Amino acid sequence: MSSSGSEAAAAAESYPVNGGDGTFSYKKNSSFQRASTNVAQATIDGVIAEKLDVERFSPALTTFQIADLGCLSSQLPDFQVLFNDHTSNGFNTLFASLPSERPYYVAGMPGSFHGRLFPKASLHFMHSFYALHWLSKVPKELVDPNSPAFNKGRVHYTSDPCEVSDAYTSQFAKDMVTFLHARGKDIASGGIMVLVMPRIANDIPNSYASSCIMFDLLGFSLMDMAKEVDSFNLPVYAPTPNEMTVLVESNGCFRHKVCTSGYFNIERTDLAALGSKIDDSVGGHTCMLHLRARMQGIISKHFGSEIINDLFDHFLGKTKKFSNCLRCAW
User: Fold this and answer.
1) Residue 6 per-residue DSSP state
2) How many CA atoms lie within 13 A of 276 on its CB side?
3) Confidence at residue 322, expressed as pLDDT on a 0 to 100 scale
4) Phi and psi dihedrals of 66, rounded to 5?
5) What span, in angstroms and rounded, lies between the C-alpha atoms of 296 and 301?
6) Is residue 115 within 8 Å of 206, Cβ to Cβ?
7) Strands of the chain, DSSP E
8) What is the rounded CA–CA span in Å between residue 69 and residue 74?
9) Residue 100 has what pLDDT?
10) Does the reported pTM lie above 0.85?
11) How far apart are CA 125 and CA 67, in angstroms?
């Protein structure tokens, strides 16, 4: 592992989902992510068929390596799937859910995807579904009362002063540079990386995004319970397609091949709407379960677990006024 990769991995914070398969588990409450996967499937299949350059792999290749970040001769090679996540997330639930008879081998690779995870040039296909919107850490300016980016009275950057959103944007850019550098070392020449993540359409205000509305309601719910939110911010950022394109194409390491890691070409970028793929009955209760499954851990760590039931009851009450806006939240 490179020194920069080690530092990034050590600095990255862990935001575990609700494990297991209970009522409030991520496994039972990830329908939005499942819908996005279904939407992306045809595009991914097409890119693999068109762009996966197997002729550039070693002629001695006997194992085709696939990595899932953020947990997901004439004979075919063996397929090995490597699932990555923080150690605090649900590897046991993941492995228990896999079919007993499967045409591939599996292994877990614990650690932060913001640093190195795999041997150099060892992976042929890598994908990440709904994970890269999590920042490696909350920008420190957000909780500094002396900073112009002090995020007083809110838990996210929706409708906030530009200094707050700029702090989020800057942290996301730093994280993506580190991520791309690490993946450039992991992926074999000719391999493919697929990233599926929440997004904000180009030139659309954050306040129009359903996920941002949901985070605002969460913050308001905390304040209703007389909880101090100035020291708490959600480490979540949804970029625009333009932002992602610039981050990939502007990194000189990849464009000009002046470093030891590989470089990436953007083969295809799609901005998919999930509305037609989500059941019309989805409303505030489903949004509450979805948010609780993903955020309960980080909220409990900051405020204590005893507030969780009351907090999400408050949140559910607020969603009744905004159910249409929240229907297609990330």
Assistant:
1) H
2) 3
3) 66
4) -125, 135
5) 8
6) no
7) 63-69, 78-85, 105-110, 123-129, 187-196
8) 30
9) 87
10) no
11) 7
On the 0-12 / 13-18 / 19+ scale of CB atoms within 10 A, 65 is: buried
Which amino acid appears at position 202 of this protein? N
Q: For 162, which DSSP code? A: H
> How far, in Å, are 10, 166, 246, 259, 289 from residue 215 at the CA level?
27, 18, 27, 39, 14
Q: Which two tokens stand for residue 238?
A: 């949804």
CA distances from 303 to 68, 174, 245 (A): 31, 28, 37
Tokens of 220: 């308001």
Q: In sequence order, which residues have a C-beta less than 8 Å from that of residue 134 and are 6 or more positions away?
A: 15, 70, 235, 236
Architecture of domain 3-326: 3-Layer(aba) Sandwich (3.40)
Cα–Cα distance, 209 to 238 (Å, whole number): 10
Asked if residue 111 lies in contact with residue 82, where contact means CB atoms within 8 angstroms, the answer is no
DSSP state, 236? B
Where are the extended beta strands (E) located within 146-303?
A: 187-196
Give φ, ψ of 68 to 5 degrees: -110, 110
**Backbone dihedral angles phi then psi of residue 108, each to the nearest 5 degrees:** -100, 140
Amino acid at residue number 238: A
81, β-bridge pairs: 66, 106
Q: What's 152's DSSP letter?
A: T
Task: List the chain residues with pLDDT less than 70.
Answer: 1-12, 60, 72-76, 90, 207-210, 251-263, 271-282, 322-330
Pair 264, 188: CB distance under 8 Å: no
Residue 57 sits at φ, ψ, to 5 deg, of -80, 165
pLDDT per residue over 150-166, tens digit each? 999 899 998 777 999 99
Quote the CA–CA distance of 8 and 3 in Å, as a whole number.
9
Q: Where are the domains of the chain?
A: 3-326
Amino acid occupying residue 311 = L
